[in-house]
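Why do we bother with holo predictions? Because pocket geometry can differ from the apo form. Keep that in mind while you read this record for zinc ion.
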Amino acid sequence: MDAKKLEHFRSLLLSQLPQHNEHIREDQAAALELSDDGVKDSSDLSMMDLNKELALRLGERESQMVADIDQTLLRIKERSYGNCGRCSRQIDERRLDALPTARYCANCQAAIEAATGNDETSTL
Ligand SMILES: [Zn+2]
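The structure, written out:
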């Protein structure tokens, strides 16, 4: 990938970082707020635990996104950005436009997901 495109994706990713960090702060604040021991009723408590759990999970997801962006910025710096981490072929630029943190080409991503299974539903 040429330097101009690398720079394009670099600034795109950098522009996304502050909003993710902001979301993390919000989620953590929400989780903290829900830790408030003002609620005595046990049914309210379990509801509160659920919301707190959700807020923490959202925070984790945002933290993961920030970590992904950090790793992607590193790949841009090393100029390995845009190459699939599995088959080393160039990732389709339309894919990178839609998902700048993509580490694998669409084929490899599908193969990896098929192999590991999508556990998104089972963890929630
Ligand atoms: Zn690949």
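The chain has a mean pLDDT of 88.
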